[in-house]
Amino acid sequence: MTIRVLLADDQALLRSAFRVLVDSEPDMEVVGEASDGAAAVELARSERADVVLMDIRMPGTDGLAATRLISADPALAQVRVVILTTFEVDDYVVQSLRAGASGFLGKGSEPEELLNAIRIAAGGEALLSPAATKGLIARFLAQGDVLDDERDPDRAQRLDALTVREREVLVQVAGGHSNDEIAERLEVSPLTVKTHVNRAMAKLGARDRAQLVVIAYESGLVRPRVD
């Protein structure tokens, strides 16, 4: 299947560069371009996009607001958002993950990293393996005031619905580990890990692994370490 990609960035030059890169791949195509978040939401719906490459800073409706709108729309449940940011450390990235983004990528990333991110997101996974993402989440959630003010007590209660094994898997997911890595650590099959991940997502109301990571931190199941 061809991955349908939507480009949302207020810089036309960047959109053109991304279009050339994406369209050069046999398994993906650009189905639309938007210069602001509102247009991105509409195009995601009309063009049946699979993945949106979303700039976080745009005039009008920014990428964060657009991500929330896409995540909240049942008609767009299949759409995955990958946030593109100029700075690797960006105050809005964790908020974007909470809003429903499947991950983030710096605009200075290598072309292969961007293409890989699209494929990962389209496959229903989350772009969480890179240490930059893991470290960024930890950096912001490790701040005491953020944890105290933004922790959702309902999420902590919903953890009670998880089995012991599902909690163990969730801790590993929060560490940025892949299914294969978790399977090796817990001495089970990758398919078993995938089943536990899917059940945890359903019980916690998470769209994907990215939101599972945030829930794990916000609920207090995992306490980030800042070196």
UniProtKB/TrEMBL annotation:
<dbReference type="InterPro" id="IPR011006">
    <property type="entry name" value="CheY-like_superfamily"/>
</dbReference>
<keyword id="KW-0805">Transcription regulation</keyword>
<feature type="domain" description="HTH luxR-type">
    <location>
        <begin position="155"/>
        <end position="220"/>
    </location>
</feature>
<dbReference type="Pfam" id="PF00072">
    <property type="entry name" value="Response_reg"/>
</dbReference>
<feature type="domain" description="Response regulatory">
    <location>
        <begin position="4"/>
        <end position="122"/>
    </location>
</feature>
<dbReference type="InterPro" id="IPR039420">
    <property type="entry name" value="WalR-like"/>
</dbReference>
<keyword id="KW-0804">Transcription</keyword>
<dbReference type="InterPro" id="IPR058245">
    <property type="entry name" value="NreC/VraR/RcsB-like_REC"/>
</dbReference>
<feature type="modified residue" description="4-aspartylphosphate">
    <location>
        <position position="55"/>
    </location>
</feature>
<keyword id="KW-0597">Phosphoprotein</keyword>
<protein>
    <submittedName>
        <fullName>Response regulator</fullName>
    </submittedName>
</protein>
<keyword id="KW-0238">DNA-binding</keyword>
<dbReference type="Pfam" id="PF00196">
    <property type="entry name" value="GerE"/>
</dbReference>
<dbReference type="InterPro" id="IPR001789">
    <property type="entry name" value="Sig_transdc_resp-reg_receiver"/>
</dbReference>
<dbReference type="InterPro" id="IPR016032">
    <property type="entry name" value="Sig_transdc_resp-reg_C-effctor"/>
</dbReference>
<dbReference type="InterPro" id="IPR000792">
    <property type="entry name" value="Tscrpt_reg_LuxR_C"/>
</dbReference>
